[in-house]
Amino acid sequence: MTAEEILNSLKAKFGDAIVEAKLDAPQPWIVVNPSRTKEIAFFLRDDPATRFDYMMCLSGVDYNNGKLGIVYHLFSMVHRHKIVLKAFCTKEQPHIQSVTSVWATANWHEREAFDMYGIVIDEHPDLRRILLPYDWEGHPLRKDYQVPEFYNGMKVPY
Amino acid sequence: MGLLDQRFENGNVFVTSLENLLNWARLSSLYQMQFGLACCAIEMMAASASDFDIMRFGIIPRATPRQADVMFVAGTVTLKMASRIKRLYDQMAEPRYIISMGSCANCGGPYWEHGYHVLKGVDRVIPVDVYVPGCPPRPEALLEGIIKLQEKVRKESLVKKPA
Amino acid sequence: MLTEFGKVFIFLIIGALFVAAGLLVAWLLRPRRPYPGKVAPYECGEEPVGDAWVRFNVRFYVIALIFLVFDVEVVFLLPWALVFRDLGLFGFLEMAVFLGILLVGFAYVWVKGDLDWDKPRPVVPQINRNPESHVEPGKRNVEVPVVN
Amino acid sequence: MIETKSLPTQYASQPGPVQTSSGKTLRTDEMIINMGPQHPSTHGVLRLEIVVEGEIIIDVIPHIGYLHRCFEKHAEHMTNYQQVIPYCDRLDYCAAINDEHSYVLAVERMLKIELPERVEYIRVVMAELQRIASHLIAVGTFGIDAGAFTPFLYAFHDRELILDLFEMTCGARLLYNYFWIGGLSHDIPPQFVDKAKQFCTYFRPRIKEFNDLLTYNEIFVKRTANVGVLPKDVALNYACSGPMLRGSGINWDLRRDDPYSVYHKLQWEPQIGKGEMGTVGDVWDRHIVRMREMEVSLSIIEQALAALPEGNVQAAIPKRIRPDAGEVYARTETPRGELGFYVISDGSGTPFRVKARAPAFVNLSVLPAISRGCMIADLVLIAGSVDIVLGQVDR
Amino acid sequence: MTIDLFTLAFYLFALITLASAAVVVFSKNIIYSSFALLFTFFGVAGLYVLLMADFIAITQIMIYVGGILVLLLFGVMLTTKVISVDMRTGTIQTLPAVLVVSAMAGVLIGIFWTTDWKVSPTAVGFEKTAPRIGEMLLSTYLLPFEIASVVLLVALVGAAMIARREKKPL
Amino acid sequence: MDAFQNLGFWRTLLVTVVLSALPLVFILLYALVTIYLEMKVAAHVQDRLAYMRTGWHGVLQPIADFIKLLQKEDIISVAADRKLFILAPYIVFMGTYGAYAAIPFSSIFIGAQIDLGAFFIVAISSLVVVGILMAGWASNNKWSIFGAVRSVAQMVSYEIPTVLAILVGVMITGSLNLQEVTKFQAGGIQDWVIFGGPLPLLQKLLITPFTVITFLILFVASLAEVNRTPFDLPEAESELVQGFFTEYSGMRWALFYVAEYANMFLVSAVAVAYFLGGWGSPFGETLSGPVLGFFWFVLKGMVLVFLQIWLRWTLPRLRVDQLMYTAWKVLVPFLFVCIVAIGLILVL
Amino acid sequence: MTVAQFSQWLQTPGLNHFLLISGILFSLGVFAILTRRNAIMVLMGIELVLNAANINFLAFSRYTTGTLDGQVIAIFVIILAAAEAAIALAIVLNIYQNFNSVNIDEINQLKD
Hints:
The structure holds seven protein chains of seven kinds. By secondary structure, chain D is α+β, with helices and mostly antiparallel strands. Chain D has helices at 71-77, 84-89, 96-111, 117-145, 150-170, 192-215, 218-224, 232-237, 243-247, 254-257, 283-306, 359-364, 367-371, 376-386, 390-394, and strands at residues 30-35, 47-53, 56-63, 179-180, 183-184, 326-334, 337-345, 351-357.
């Protein structure tokens, strides 16, 4: 399936949940509603025509314009096609629905996105920090992150 | 009593030969704590493998800090790990020695500037005896570090240092 | 006069004395600098969660139990083994009956699985299915990806 | 200095129910053990919080991040794209070349540049040598996990020979900074080809020896067969890759299925687990996949060396690399699996965002699922068979 | 005053036995009780040796120390909740028990003391007890010997049956 | 020791004490040699050198280790049960050393000529079991407890095959006294119990397969008794850190270590005495004698110890349920068959 | 009995001495059985009692009969003790699994 076909079938099924799409990019992407990612993901995984059974990557991004986002790189082992999904949220309301129940691999990626960007993953089974200590403050990959002077009595900057 | 807790006022033949014996034993049998952190740990493993054979120096890996004499801090120490390293160091039985292996453990290495989660030098949490530079140091460098440590141990003394 | 068991006792005492002597020499030499961090219990660098003195699996008990019964049996077997050649076939048969009865017990615990240690009972993971969909996840994804 | 939490003189164990860090309350005969961060078999600083009943594992909660070295932050703060490469090296320090390859590939795809043939062939040779070296570490340490120490030393001895090849090429033993954007840092030395061929002929019988010593050892088979079974569909759902995925019987190799470099010009077949000793997808399968992949790599190296063309080792690229604004996700098959770099460029000289999709990170996330109900000894083997490198897991 | 070795050994073992038995009985910590039992068994084995029963003495160590004690220790470790206070074993009805036991001990020891035991003047030193015990087991004591195997069978089957526990699903 | 019967009591006592300390000297020397040997054998299996820096080819290494361990601080964790923690090494070492009393080192030297020597060795070794349980429990460390409990379960399980294998030896030799057992096989290599002992040819031929199997089982079981690979689960580094002595440091740990090495020789010595002719020369009367007897005994024991070391650096380790399976479902049934077969052959 | 006699008595351990030890051991065992709440402690008490009995058997065997019958009986006692310990501990464990306690009183209460 081409990206256009995927977009069409998504639009047919979910309508306004598909916010935006850019199909002429080298790796075409579709922007979806952050609160409906799970059902879209289930559809993409289970629909015989799309069958995106393999999530290559899930990345959090800070777009440096008040927007945070999660980028899903999907791949179908059966059909050998790829698509990129994106879901955006604002820094004030950083909520995106979890897709862990669809692709189990998303679990740790989403925790990482939470850890690094502070994106709250709704419906995530175990949303804790993953890389940084539990008592760490702030989300370091945000563009406006300030490195703390001390952590637990240890000086952080050189 | 604890002879190693005592300090003699001045050394005589007996004290110095005892001191030599004890130091010789300590430096010849440095049990290493089985503990690696990052890239340098691979070089540390290479050093303990057949080609470099760290055991020639009497270094045997022990899994628990209670029985270890020397800890190679081989790799980047992160802030999350630092407290654990401190705890492990604490739990080692004295006399104990630390070799800081690699730039990261020495000073933060390539992560010194933007590494918000990297401790810039393990000597900020535990005392280090020997620093081995390199990113990562070759196994030979680690062996050199061990020899340096042995020299340091050899110079330890039971006699009070002149004030 | 010192009997042979007296000598054994001396051996035991020497064993204990050796430990004591070793520890004494070490006591004379070794430093003593305890502080709270050092004497904290070790658990791979973490602070232990919960106590180590928890209860154990009943398996250990069953193994010790079976051992005990066999141990007792050995106590009978050893004197028999010392004299069975003098007693001839009759003695052998007596012991055979004894062993036979015990082997029934052995067979029983074998069959009932008491000789087995806790076997791993791995849980094979399954993938999540869509609660709204009716597609069985097992069926759907079992197909192997196409091979070129 | 860290403030040491002062312990009471009498170590007080917490009264009341004990809870795991994910909030589960323990039953009476369960206990929590921390395996790691300092533990001989966690391959670095992985910490596994395990809930056990007797020796049976009820739950495993991996705690990672003890080696979180802020790779992504560094990538965003470097002054140019080239400077990220050394940090890529340090992601997977057992297979640095493969990491560089992935990142370099991503940037080259953004720049849309064509590379000289020679570069691609050298890259293939290097990547496969590195794959062998990395697999040697994996199977060697796996032997230690199973209680066999000697195979580890044999593996490391052979690995040294590969490192010698790297050393004569770029002067470094572990972290090379050899693949540059648009080519290589410099050409291979003249005697490299012969030395590499010699290595190949030397190493084939060694693999057999290693297999005889460890892989087909009765005890080892008993320990590893039917342990840590990862079914196909679960492996896909967890997006496992590399030997982990192939061990589960899925014939999938990015070198063949999402071709990059010149792999499509060479003759070779991916190796998959067939369940010879037990179930498909058990620990033994993952191990044997690694062992067989080494042979495959040898054959790739020999072919690539035979076909090595003459030419330049650096494509014409602008002095200051400024890709157009846009994004790319490029992936290669590293020894641990699919290493993808998701690079976003805003048109400036530094990447806007670099996300490393680390195979070890993804593969490790399946560990709790496949080790439930196993014993502690099995957990060690399962963790070993995942072949994690903490630098990549924690980035 | 010279004390011969027998006397010395007797008092030594008596001391070990009684002191450790006292620890067993009076210790508040059940683990200490169990480990003290090791010394009691050992001391009793010593007394057996003094009574020329080398086979029994070694059997004592083998079965009591190697078997029953390990079993008891596992029992303690299996059932004792150390985290809570249960490790300390409470006592009940101490005073009546003390009275009863001391009365009983008095009577017992009184009987032992006053009875004029027919001590054989030539106290035989037993040599090579084990083969003779073996012979006796297979001749005079054949019936008890075979019954013992049935007892052991019953113990094994019964105990295994009682102790078995259904495997919980994970 | 019979030569000293005529001396006065106290002198006898003194002589006895001195003689009883001789095995200790042996153990210490042996431990130093074996610790060195272990690493050197390992190294030569593994293409390397191991100890090279302390003395010629590192021969002084074990001494350096020992002196260093004397200097190490002794840590008793606050969580531990202090009394039992301190007591445990004593119990373990007493159990080990007590067993040496019945080992016939030579025709003129045996610590205590007990009629029930082999039985005594097995019995007194159970002190080690209790000591290990004590050490593990007192440490109050999860790895220690796991190691201790595993160790105890393993040792008691493998005690049955060990004792049953010894029983086979008793059936053939008709004695539990290791000195007599050795004398029984004094005729040279063809009289060793592993080859059926000095029996008529037909019986010997019939019995030999069973005795060989029994000897192998005894060797395997003794590997497990002393926690050596492939049965080294109690202190499996890759699983349980250091097993029951995870919390022990310095000299206390060293004593466990020495006891462990002493046990290695102990089990080998029992196997040698029962199956390999003890201190008897393999050539019958030639090259025999008290001193040479000692040499033969130690040589045979060291060969078995060497085998243990060799196996350790070759094999992976079993899992605990497989270990129990091996003990109860393989070794014990085989031994029952051997016992019945040998018994039948001997009485018929 | 005079002091000298007593001292003489002390210096020549014989049957009575062993009986005395056995009596004390027996009483200690009974005391444990009577007073302890923990079922396993009760078991330990029983072991003490059985040991005391065995001392008696052996002492009489040694000092009066001069035959080995006492020793054979002692073996049977040890065997029975082993069987008893196995069964009793199994029962204790079973009770523990059902009531989560090995405290005899508590179990009594739970039963009601």
